[in-house]
Design brief:
The structure is a homohexamer of 174-residue chains. Chain A contains six helices and five strands. The first copy, chain A, is an alpha/beta fold and 174 residues long. The first copy, chain A, has one domain: 3-Layer(aba) Sandwich (Rossmann fold), CATH 3.40.50.620. A five-stranded parallel beta sheet of chain A has the order 3-2-1-4-5, with helices on both faces. The longest helix of chain A has 18 residues. The N and C termini of chain A lie far apart (50 Å).
Chain lengths: 174, 174, 174, 174, 174, 174
């Protein structure tokens, strides 16, 4: 049965940014369990594999939770999924989908997805949280573009992620 | 201390519509306690007094909860407030503000208010829920305009509200 | 009975602008009869009376039609109305409401009104036509603001309207 | 010569959805003839061939018209086209392009296309009709995504279309 | 004659906020002279008189310029104006109007004003600068609302302004 | 060192349109030097090579400047760049990025890019100028689509560009 206290936060996370981490941190304080769900989509070309993306999320989530003074990542779980999000949420027992919004730029698409998910399962709620304004310009693709061009991205991604991107970018070039 | 399971849903509710009631019903299932907070604003001209608005909300909230098969309005409380919402939320021990969004038309203003509330108290989260699409065109002012012109509004407001509006409109004319 | 070939174009027209006239001209070519309906709203403060607004619309509409090579205003009728537009459209036998859109700035409000009118009478359609781009910045209130400050508005309003505005503005000051 | 009573409704229709059918039904009541024009675009990858898309549209259009109590599809014609829509409209004698809008998400692109078509032929009008709110979340690509993942789409597409999608999806997998 | 190096930044500034000051500071570095123009509009009810608003702007502008290491306010002038901005810009010899945008919320209105000003005088350019994201939620009316309710606004307005608002608010109540 | 009087106007310009040229002309009057920077992006498929795009821009820029009564292109320079725009602007000594906005359709993306560029180098300003309303529907891709389908594009692109597009399109087909 679905639990109104289990939230699911879906995304590509290719890679996780400080904007994602801000949402993860804030959403985890609102529920009993937060499931961070990495979409496994064969058609979409990604820089990192699903496994690498999960690893980075787990490392980052653990640290964020610690900084709030609680034992690390106690209520955050990172998994992958395929197929429809509504189906996966039901399987996990999650009844609330969490989405972050950056200004209005993501709104229209997210609104349609939320209505679609409600059509598929009317017990599922989508809640929208605002991304911190300082991350308004931040997206995974911007981070990759910057790293590819040698810019400093240390303020944009969690610790450890910058090194992984640089390594990935270098090995792709080399 | 603020409880992450206490939500606050603020508004004018002049009068409550089926769109408001849909949000109240859905939000109440996500938290331990939902505080519906009616703004007491002397400068804004309203059709109903704060006390009338609270009475309509209480009647409506009780019935909605019943229809979900639970004892009526057990976790919904209707109160009035003055001053800043962030201050009132803190006094109530609420840490989550709930706002309903109709398509995108309310988004920009709500987004600024949410940022402002976060500036005032960074522990307060605002979550946005989508209004049911069938209520996209619905607002308290549209309801009043229709009632004033003799249209049937029975599908737009909770039971009992239509009679109160008609009475109010008739007595204002008479 | 409502005729799918009778259109209604509602507005305040305080005063008619070249943007309005562009819509009137184009819509009149699409239907058998176009009813231009001037809202009579006691609470809204206007520069011109309803009768003055109707007179300006009739003069302008006649000329536009002529320039298209047809006998003047043969299928355009200018009237006033009170109450709900959906009710008035039904009384006139009109089944299509015409609205002009300037870029996106009017869209959200108009969309809600169209949905509301469909709720009131599902046989009524609203069609949106784009305002000519050269009139994107044009509105009745901009025209009044400019005239009040002595700017040349001859390219913004139909012939005859500029004189009426100047006279009105001068007599209000005097 | 172009007839102001001949409308053209262009699209990919890959496949037709209940949202498209709603527009077809409503637009057909406003004009003498409605031409549903399926774009033949070699560069765009589609699930159905142009011929399959035309067949589904014809079947669906016939039934909708019947439900309105008139002989089936009497004024609806389904054809394919290549090249510029403005050119094709002129060839068909159509002077009005019909577009459906879902909330505001389609508006900006459609607005630019309408201006472009007016630049190409100033006698061509584009009218926008609102998609029924219950179809706000509906698009051909959402339908395909759902069908691909085994969801029930019977309420989203006309009768007969669901079977065709399932068959197509199964044969593509197999 | 108009100078392309003279900019004009118009507004109500009731009162100046840190968001305004950010634009003033950045725009002043782009031009030879920046004219900050306070609109004198009798119909609009303001908290501060035009003279008070000018005084606060002058104090604030002087300090900002200093912090950039240049002698205070050397190229910033604060004045009031009535009538049309386009006329006033011409009188000042300014050919560029500067406007700050907060996310997209101000865009549509500002866009129409800019087009209108270009209609009035095609040599006048309007340039839009983005407000710093940390001021996205900030407006003069929000500042007044907060101060009226006793909130700390020291991070939202320049030094000295908070005291003036408090004094004004207290004297209005008393 | 960056000069506040050196502006940079980046884009793909595949090919330059009259909308681009309008911005180039107006921006060049506001600064000492305008650098038109053609992005060299190997992953993006273009109709024209970078060298062809530069040649068309130089020809067009020279003529526009002449028509304003000044010796041709005296302060306009056309170059190509790779990598991050912020880095290239710094190398050129440019401190202001110029972007044209068509109605609101480009706004959200441009806003994010501007914030990102400010993150990379806080001394860089982005200013937005409105595209002339008559070019609202105009884009390089629309121009290519029209030319590919044999439409007359002489009013949409600078002299000389139409011939080059036709030649390119014909040689690609042949």
């Amino acid at each position: 049965m679905s639990d109104p206290q289990t939230y699911i936060y879906p995304g590509s996370f290719d890679p996780v940014t400080n904007g994602h981490l801000d949402i993860i941190s804030r959403a985890s304080r609102m529920c009993k369990q937060l499931i961070v769900a990495v979409g496994r989509n064969r058609e979409k070309k990604t820089l990192f594999t699903v496994e690498e993306r999960i690893a980075m999320l787990r490392e980052s989530a653990a640290r964020v939770a610690d900084s709030a003074g609680r034992p690390g990542g106690g209520n955050i779980e990172v998994v992958s999924f395929t197929g429809l999000l509504a189906d996966f949420a039901r399987q996990c027992g999650a009844s609330v989908i969490v989405k972050g919004l950056r200004a209005m730029s993501d709104f229209e698409y997210e609104f349609q997805m939320a209505l679609l998910n409600k059509y598929l399962d009317e017990r599922i709620e989508t809640i929208f949280m605002m991304t911190n304004v300082q991350f308004t310009y931040l997206s995974s693709s911007a981070v990759k573009e910057l790293a590819l061009n040698g810019a400093d991205i240390s303020g944009l991604v969690p610790d450890g992620v910058q090194e992984r991107i640089r390594f990935k970018v270098t090995s792709q070039r080399g």
